[in-house]
Amino acid sequence: MRNAIFYLTYNGLYNFTNGIGTQTQLLLGGLEAMQEMLAAQYGPIDLHLVCPQPDAQTWGYDQAFFDRQRQRIAALGGQVHLVPYQTQPEQELWEIRSWQALCHHVVPLLHTQAAAYDRSLIIAVDQPWLQTPLALMANPPRIPSSIDMLLVLYTTAHIRNWTAPNAAELAWEQAGLEASQPGSQVSIADVCPSFTAHLNHHFALSTAQFAPYTSSILVNDPIFALQDETAVRSTLQSYGVPLDADLVLAFGRAQPIKGFDRLIPALAPIRDRVHFVLISVPYLDDDSEQRLYDRLLGDYRIQATHIKHFTRDLPRAMCQWRRTKMVVVPSRYETFSNIPLEVALWARETGPVVVTSTAAGCMDQIEPGTTGFVADITSDQELARTLQQVLDLSEDAHTAVRRQAYQRVVETYDFTHHLPVTLRWFWQPPSRPSRYRDEI
């Protein structure tokens, strides 16, 4: 039996600048690791990776990276498909007209390519692809029986613009999610408990089908192989990070939702004890948030190294360095951050523990005081007290938290466990509960 996975995304193929890129890389790495095992169970599984057509303005476009991903996908028996969406040269991806174009233009591709397979699973990632099921239903009027669809959201308009959600984006999301009905062959991903609760609360999805697609990590990915101390020291020095100071690390997109502007003032009470390393990644050329961070660092006299571009090398090295005391995730909202998982794997022998905000997705991952620490970032005093608490941990207590965090990731969040669960749910339906959402 011939099988295919069509993965519709917008990051991680020719760029790698955010968490969506991380998810794309996770799928590629997972299929590489499990290819033989899955083929023995289901038959060959080809991967088709579908992305918007890039142009000169594409965020973080990297031709060498693109070439490597093409080679990996070819080795998985798959193909890369680039879908146009622009009707005007300056048209950005994050416009509803662009999403409409993507969903419209991908339909002939999916019909043609899926016809070659006995079973196809189409995974549509985030807002740009959310109404792909509706487009498929429009012509012809139903999705072919050989196709199942999984809608994977990692954010909503309620999260992106939490003070005043965009009405048009909300309408787009509502219509896309409502395509999931009993018997529709369209399911919504249950990525973590808090986000599934968010979707049900804001979109009233009383009849939707939720499928297991637990956010996870490839525990044995080579990126998590430990480095020797010489390599770690060399990386830190190359970025100007001092080796003779205790370190606090935070990294992510340079956007208000990430909460770095709340973290910096909370560092003031411990500024004489630590050096702060901030890695903030701007969207295109918008450095407004980074300029705010620099001003706050100056105002609060924080000793800091501010890296203003994407890097995996520096977090990897810092999370294996004995003087990195904590990694802070101060997000105002977080669907499910991979940072606590990555830190736990890198720091399994030495390195930091994690401090997160009380944002819903973070609370799904952290058992306070056991696998990490949490703080209410709306209170400078509480956040500052938590940072002080972690800095004052004994070596034995710090080590215990690190080890328990690592053990929980290995036992709970390994992608090599969760992807087979998802495929079994779609391709072995007798094992599927009548309404998965009743169990979540």
UniProtKB/TrEMBL annotation:
GO terms for molecular function: glycosyltransferase activity. InterPro entries: Glyco_trans_1 (IPR001296). Gene3D superfamilies: Glycogen Phosphorylase B. Residues 238-400 form the Glycosyl transferase family domain. Transmembrane segments: none annotated. Pfam families: Glycos_transf_1. PANTHER family: GLYCOSYLTRANSFERASE (PTHR12526). This is Glycosyl transferase family 1 domain-containing protein.
